[in-house]
Design a protein that fits this description.
Blueprint: H1 13-22, H2 30-51, E1 59-63, E2 69-71, H3 72-88, E3 91-96, E4 103-104, E5 112-120, E6 131-139, H4 150-153, E7 160-168, E8 172-177, E9 183-188, E10 193-198, E11 209-211, H5 222-233, E12 237-238, H6 244-254, E13 257-260, H7 273-286, E14 290-292, E15 312-315, H8 317-328
Parallel strand pairs: 3-5, 11-12, 11-13
Antiparallel strand pairs: 1-2, 3-4, 5-6, 6-7, 7-8, 8-9, 9-10, 13-15, 14-15
Helix pairs in contact: 2-3, 5-8
The structure holds 2,5-anhydro-1,6-di-O-phosphono-D-mannitol (AHM) and magnesium ion.
The site of 2,5-anhydro-1,6-di-O-phosphono-D-mannitol has 11 residues, from strand 5.
């Protein structure tokens, strides 16, 4: 029996994770602990973000591996998540948007790999607009009692054992899946707890909102330009926050589509396959939606590099299918 599906709104995240684990008689509790570690770091980062003071807002004056300006919170959140995963003990190796190389936690016995973007959309922090954390969890392929390997980290998205995001918005939310549907939890700051608020999220097959950076339209592939024209002819609404997690979350709940295709500025797209596209694609599919690079399924892609970019088209199934039609006309 799947206990978790029967759990009511208001169940604490901790209890939910515990009950989910009971559904797997041979589960060791390691993945459960890993999810708790992520939730702990999320609470700390939510606190840091809400401080909105000179220690947390503004640029760090350094660049990350992609040559992008690091915000103070990019650095702070990176440290928070790594520390929580290291101390929790269930993760041997981490891939982070903020670090060029693999991060080995020293937990060589641990069986999980995490790929994460600690703060996505961080250029929005200064103006008090929602940002997010995105994470993917894989089981290592290599033998335990050594650091995780590059091969452990370059697994196809289909191999994810869990994925999720934290949305730091008007409320902080943790939305995750272990491959049996998607559940969302809202953080109650005064109690310091995440509570189940969005059980078994199913995304509508069709929506009437699209999210993309339309300023780039002239350098989008022709199929995407034509799809955009179609959206306008259908009188869809344009909604672009410029924070992937926030745009994705809105579309997940209400129905809609987000796309960041290749463009002249970013020929291979902008989103990173390992810690942006794959985890959100996993969630989209678990909720009944779809994710492609315009044509091919994101989760089937074989990553070649840690920080590889990929065009992303994600959201309601019928809308993602429609893009493919325009791309292959
Ligand atoms: P980041 O990981 O450096 O924060 O970049 C990812 C962000 C997404 O959250 C957002 O959808 C996109 O970049 C916005 O890009 P643009 O300003 O080109 O529209
Ligand atoms: Mg990002």
């Amino acid at each position: 029996m799947n206990h978790a599906l029967a759990l009511p709104v208001g169940t604490t995240l901790d209890r939910f994770i515990h009950r989910k684990q009971e559904d797997f008689p041979y589960a060791t509790g390691e993945l459960s602990q890993l999810l708790r570690d992520i939730a702990l770091a999320a609470k700390i980062v939510a606190r840091d973000i809400s401080k909105f003071d000179q220690d947390t807002v503004g640029q760090m004056g350094t660049e990350n591996v992609q040559g992008e300006q690091q915000q103070k919170l990019d650095v702070i959140a990176n440290i928070r998540f790594i520390r929580a995963l290291r101390n929790g003990g269930e993760v041997c190796t981490i891939v982070s948007e903020e670090e060029e190389e693999l991060i080995h936690t020293g937990n060589q016995h641990a069986k999980y790999i995490v790929a994460m973007d600690p703060v996505d959309g961080s250029s929005n922090i200064d103006v008090n607009i929602p940002v997010g954390t995105i994470f993917a969890v894989y089981r290592r392929l290599s033998e335990a009692n050594a650091d995780g390997t590059l091969e452990d980290c370059l697994q196809q998205g289909t191999q994810q054992v869990a994925a999720g995001y934290i949305l730091y918005g008007a409320s902080t939310m943790l939305v995750y899946s272990t491959g049996r549907g998607v559940n969302g939890f809202t953080y109650e700051t005064s109690l310091g707890e995440f509570f189940l608020s969005h059980p078994d999220i199913k995304t509508p097959n069709m929506g009437s909102q699209y999210s993309c950076n339309e300023a780039n339209v002239s350098s989008f592939p022709l199929g995407i330009q034509n799809y955009l024209a179609y959206c306008k002819s259908e009188k869809y609404s344009s909604r672009y926050i410029g924070s992937l997690v926030a745009d994705f979350h809105r579309n997940l709940v209400k129905g809609g589509i987000y796309f960041y295709p290749g463009s002249t500025k970013n020929p291979g797209g902008k989103m990173r396959l390992l810690y942006e596209c794959n985890p959100l694609a996993f969630l989209a599919e678990q909720a009944g939606g779809k994710a492609t690079d315009g044509i091919e399924r994101i989760l089937d892609k074989q990553p070649k590099e840690l920080h590889e970019r990929c065009p992303l088209v994600i959201g309601s199934a019928d809308m993602v299918d429609k893009v493919k039609k325009y791309m292959t006309l």
